[in-house]
């Protein structure tokens, strides 16, 4: 009995020692294998974000926004409670600041190179490169932008970066989490589309390619090695 109690205590200490500095509601996973086995069961509206420190992955629970998919948008993922929640292709359930914190805790470096004035210029977002995929029950991981269509070739050639922009993001309260152009507000955005393309950019998705409205899907955001940067 004593031996069992000691082992239990050691296991608890071990887990505590590797814990990341993330909010209490952010679930942490110890390996990519565990993530693959449990993601669908854990990510939900009640548990909207989880972190796999070894694989450098942040998972977000999202649902489709049929209206935005049909009308077109520049926003990939927005917190549904944010000002742009109704116009995003996908809606999440977590404040962007928690997403930002999770990425920084995993070692991602924010670019923080854009301001609102840059929307009049021809600039692109900087920061750690990221790979973004999506999956749901019965659907294996697929690159997020493979499900999107646009006249702008920068969508098919997406180059997602950890733009940062936390101060502006929280001040404007748009809920912008992942944008499809180089955005001075979104936490993550697409370096393959310039700031100057904002007004002309329209990205669509076919709701028929997604699960039933209201179904929770799993968005996987993985930090890429800088050598993999396009």
TrEMBL record:
Superkingdom of origin organism: Bacteria
Keywords: Signal
InterPro entries: 4Fe4S_Fe-S-bd, YdjY-like
Name of this chain's protein: 4Fe-4S ferredoxin-type domain-containing protein
Lineage: Bacteria, Bacillati, Bacillota, Bacilli, Lactobacillales
Signal peptide: 1-19
Keyword Signal: yes
Key word Ubl conjugation present: no
Domain 4Fe-4S ferredoxin-type: 164-193
